[in-house]
Amino acid sequence: MPCVALVPSGDVCGASTSADGRCRVHAAQYETLIHNWKVANGEMSTLLGADIPPLHAIIQTGDMENIAAVAERLTKLLDAVAIDSLAREEVKTRYKALPLFSEDKARIQRKTFMVKEAKDRLRTLAKWTTIGQHDQDDGYAERLALFTSQYPPVADSTAGRASGPRMIMFKNTLREALHNVGKTLGLPCDSKVLDLIDYAKESENTDGIAQACLRQNSTFVRKYAVLLTDGPPPSMIRALALDSQSECILQRLVLQQLLRRMLFYSPTTRPAIEYRDFNSIGEVFDSTFVSAEDLAFLENLIERDAFGNGLVWWKAAVQEALHIASGTSPQYPTFDVLGGWIYSDAAKVQLDADGWIILANILGNPPNLESKFTPLCQTFEEMHVFFSVLHLALPPPPHVHDSATGRTRASMCQAGFIMAELVPSHAGELPPVGPTNKPGAKRGTIQWVEFQRRAYLNGLIPSSDTPWTRSFFEALRAQERACVVVVYDETKTQGAPDAISVSGGPLGDSADWSIRTRTFDGPPFSGFDNLPEPKGRNWTTIRSAVDILTSDGTINLPDTGAGPSRSSPADAEQMFKGFATRIQGGEQKLVFSNKAFPARYVCILDSQPRTDGKDLLRVVEVAALRAAGVLHTLSPTDGELAIAAADLHERRMKECFSHIGTV
């Protein structure tokens, strides 16, 4: 292509007045500049490798669109490095004791100066235009300024501090992510990142982490980039046979998954972001931006099934990144495998407003999510995989600090027990009995049949009689801690639930309920969810399963004045389903009510009264893992449970993506 007339938008140097002269002078300068920049910034050299043609050759062709594109790309990368250098200097000043920020100050200053010089020259090149064209501005600085104004760094104050349990959860979350990345992808673990996490835990001041997460390509984030860019496994190179540009695209996408999860689990950045950027979190990091060309390239890889030979994890992450970047909605939930490695400590799947926002983003923002998301799962297997990933992905409620609870819920779901809720027995005390002279009709006398309150959990299991179901009940019977199981099967002809005991005999023989009647002041009992509230106290009770189940397994509804009354089988069916599956939200919604397959609703009662339910949760988890064949001891240690849960998680994810390639 002949060289076109070039007009500079500003006087940049005393070069020759001819167009060709200007091209040659600037090309030589930029060639030297790029060479020096590569030497000074070795960690970014993969992004400026052979995929970028020499600028001298581009300028000689006169193809100014290509010149502008190359200059724009290099300018963005230089902006990223400049921000990184400033972030290093600021954080180093505040945390001098950290080995992570022990780079020589002169080297940082030299790098910053070279980056500034490179940016100035590249921006000059980007302003060279053909006659009649306007100067191009990618708006990068404006977008960065907008983000900085919306999400400023957290100040070093009490607002920037996190509680000890929250910080421990954050540290364990990142450790788990590092461990699994190293295990699956064969990449080394960066001990300096763990040093930073330990330091933040000890000081309980997360301002440094918050700044690092919020700053584009900052030191903290770049440490994770090293895990994904330095020395990729030979299996990946052989299987994909990708050039350096293609590898960088994949690495950026996988890194995006880790960054997105890291931001939401940070004790300080999560409240700042407020879940509003769940799908667009990649826009925060310019190096993880996915262009239209990147999308086309990745779609081509997926179409020709280039992922295989142990790279199923890569494709899973790429598929989700494609949905996020392109804004498309899959027909059913995509499973964020990399995010699924990070264990949440959510004690319940009670979705508040934030939870529904997160779930909506996972599913691609479908309309009327609350009433329509369960039919997306057409089989029990799809639902238990979906809920297991949901348990792992949801941020924990602020009042929960047990890091093992989320893993327990997920492992039970992956084994086959979809857990809906766990209710402790020590919450919600009954009101004291007080003498009164008021007639019963005036004071709203209520006779409440009170059983010993026990913790319970409930959920779903397959409706069909499977080997797992039989093994699950046998494993429950083998546990030292006795419990009672109440089951309602949707395939039954009768509506009443079945009550079975796994503690050695029928329910009526093995469970010695302590029954007594209390009379107290309160409003008349008008419904199942309207529990009495005595005068002078704000009394709310978390109902226990034994409050509504009689010894023969039918539903027992308290009545006003005349004692308990039996419900019909149809009422028993409806009440038990509501009791077993209700999840609190903005409105009372039944998560499982619209599913497209039959299942058995299960309620498991603890034999010990006044417990927090964690022991019962462990009993059920052990039984589920033993039935799934990943646990073989009757009383495993915490470490053995964690290993078994991780093995089961890996197995389920491989089964879920088995159509992609052989793992």
UniProtKB/TrEMBL annotation:
It comes from the Eukaryota. The lineage of its organism: Eukaryota, Fungi, Dikarya, Basidiomycota, Agaricomycotina. It comes from Exidia glandulosa HHB12029. This is Uncharacterized protein.
